[in-house]
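As a representative case, we now present a protein record of this kind.
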Amino acid sequence: MQSSKPFFTAVIVATIGAAAANAAHVDFKDPRRALGREGNVRIDAELAQDTVASNSPLNVTYQIENLSNSTIAVADKVSDATFDVDSRTITLSIGAEVPPGPSMPHLVTINSGEKRVLSGGALLHLNVPTMRTPWTAIPKYVQIKVTVLRDVTPFVKLIEQQNRTPSAVPLPNDMFDRWVEGSDSVVLNTIPVYWKGESRRGTAESDQPSVGMD
């Protein structure tokens, strides 16, 4: 989702370590849960908070289920966020449609028929005026988008090299096109959120009348 009037961008942050990711799970009864499916890839996600604020983290736990006949992968440590003013929706993007640099992003593979639970997030940088009006654009929804590599065959040797060394693995120039051609994004349904300082009735707490005691 793109807007001609971008409101903010978020810095890229690293996801939680592998041990924590393996211990995480998605609560399918949580109202902050979202679901998306593109072909034979299903993704369930759970937002960690229902209130957002400037310079606050936006965290998510997500489960990728691979219903295809081949292995897929996700660049789990690449994430960012954008805000669309018109729809008042934050899009939290995980994975990479295009490799962000000369090195191959860390890839987590999901075999055919397998489910993997991962965690990720981004730090929000919103510039919302202190004095707000009914026309001030504040976030109302979060939408999660996860980009997966559907064809990991060209990257098998690079993934093996990545698993053997802590150093960044260079990504050959001819692999950029293969990455773009082999990637696909799954967009989940929107999740309602509140802006910090906003009451559950949708008005700023500072706008609420004070209640005195006689």
